[in-house]
């Protein structure tokens, strides 16, 4: 299970989930390329890995442009001599409802999440194929991309698109023995810290205390470290036969997300005309209507917190 001798790039790894992924890969022996847009944050991330006995360098650049993808791969190869692992974690948020979302709100999120994943994976996969490296590519998804979420048109589109690309790349890169998987984390982040529902869990995490079992077990909601183990496992030789999968991790829970499948197939001779649909569709949809968005159970009374005041 060691990653000794492996080299990894983790985008958006200056802090939060990305840093946890990078630190876990380094703990297991991989040399890591840290990436962030803030040089100070990137330097601190590198220092944390070196202080723990690991090896890391940083590339300060925004993810999205092809030039950044090339710089990341070049840094890994020039410094450490190879590239075995890519984790595409970089992301930004521009949350607002559809009728208030600007072109820039949409383009910024798509550019970093979706285009950034594409450019980095293209560059890394090209290098791995040319060098005959049986690489590991782990792309970070989200429950929002699986189920949708109010106010996140751009983010939902990007994360759903990432899963579509992962499934395609798993097919295209199979012959080269390069695995491609998506991890869907459910963990305390800067975003969840602002949601009152998760307040008790975030309070515990910030205090260095275990999260209540309701969050860890019932919701599958945990810390960055809870997700990092899965990322590292998928980066290892133990996962050589795992590709094209979407795996959710949070708290004490692990989930395998299914590929979209038809839940019912109905046939009408001659096709489904307006009149035929008028006669039959209401009954068909009534028993097969699919849910949208995340559904959370009521918080236990002892975990409820007052809503923040303006």
TrEMBL record:
Transmembrane segments: none annotated. SMART domains: PKS_KR. One of its GO terms (molecular function) is oxidoreductase activity. InterPro entries: KR_dom, NAD(P)-bd_dom_sf, Peroxisomal_Beta-Oxidation, Sc_DH/Rdtase_CS, SDR_fam. Belongs to the short-chain dehydrogenases/reductases (SDR) family. This is 3-oxoacyl-[acyl-carrier protein] reductase. Residues 6-189 form the Ketoreductase domain. It holds the Pfam family adh_short. It comes from Homoserinimonas aerilata. Keywords: Oxidoreductase.
């Amino acid at each position: 299970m060691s990653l000794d001798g492996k080299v990894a790039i983790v985008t958006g790894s200056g802090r939060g989930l990305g840093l946890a992924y990078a630190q876990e890969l380094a703990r297991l022996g991989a040399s890591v390329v840290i990436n962030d847009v803030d040089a100070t944050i990137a330097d601190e991330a590198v220092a944390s890995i070196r202080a723990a006995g690991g090896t890391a360098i940083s590339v300060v650049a925004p993810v999205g442009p092809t030039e950044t993808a090339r710089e990341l791969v070049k840094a890994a190869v020039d410094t450490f001599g190879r590239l075995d692992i890519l984790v595409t974690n970089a992301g930004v948020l521009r949350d607002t409802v559809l009728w208030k979302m600007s072109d820039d709100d949409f383009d910024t999120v798509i550019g970093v999440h979706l285009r950034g994943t594409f450019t980095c994976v293209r560059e890394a996969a090209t290098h791995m194929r040319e060098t005959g490296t049986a690489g590991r590519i782990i792309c970070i998804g989200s429950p929002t991309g699986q189920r949708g979420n109010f106010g996140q048109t751009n983010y939902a589109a990007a994360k759903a698109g990432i899963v579509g690309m992962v499934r395609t790349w798993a097919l295209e890169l199979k012959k080269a023995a390069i695995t491609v998987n998506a991890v869907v984390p459910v963990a305390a982040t800067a975003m969840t810290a602002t949601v009152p529902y998760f307040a008790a869990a975030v309070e515990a995490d910030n205090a260095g205390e275990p999260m209540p079992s309701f969050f860890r077990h019932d919701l599958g909601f945990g810390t960055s470290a809870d997700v990092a183990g899965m990322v590292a496992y998928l980066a290892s030789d133990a996962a050589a036969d795992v590709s094209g999968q979407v795996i959710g991790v949070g708290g004490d829970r692990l989930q395998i997300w299914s590929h979209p499948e038809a839940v019912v197939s109905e046939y009408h001779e001659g096709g489904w005309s307006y009149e035929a649909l008028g006669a039959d569709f209401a009954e068909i949809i009534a028993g097969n209507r699919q849910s949208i968005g995340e559904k959370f159970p009521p918080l236990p009374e002892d975990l409820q917190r007052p809503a923040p005041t303006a």
